Amino acid sequence: MPLSKTHKAAARGRIVSAAGKAFRANGFDAASVAGIMADAGLTHGGFYAHFPSKQALFAEVAATDHDLLARLTAAKTLTARAAVLDACLDPANVAAASAGCTLSALAPDAARLGGEAAAGLSRAFEAAVASLQEVGAAPARARAALCLALGALAAARAAPPEGREATLAAARAEVGALLAPAAPARRGGAAGDWGF
Q: Is the per-residue pLDDT at 116 higher than 70?
């Protein structure tokens, strides 16, 4: 008897969730379809009823599995959205790669795979930038703050423990400064001002 659409959709959701954890923790190459299916509570043979390839699964994760974007959208002010980015830069978040930020963790693989994987991640990134802009962040500051946070997460994961906290603390300070409520404009900015 064929599976109902509801059952098939639920199974697909479990696969995407398990794959997101595996891809964030291990990267595209090291995450196996068999392991992902086992983590989803499904048999390996059922994978191709949901996805034509592992790359197609990665593309779906890259396009849809974004806790950061959901948390940014749920926060209603610029201060609250800045706090979401600050929380992402917490050392405990860096240690839990499988539950961490999809944008930061999957960017290298998405760039290498290209196609829908890169396009999906790019759409999610642009949505995150837009979420900061819609509550008052200047466009360039929103983009810079997000780039800084995502890059710092990647750098901190690669750093030895003694360098990790310094990297995260510096990024938190700068992200906070970029997303602080705008001060009244000054004439003739001082040397070193960001200018945006």
A: yes
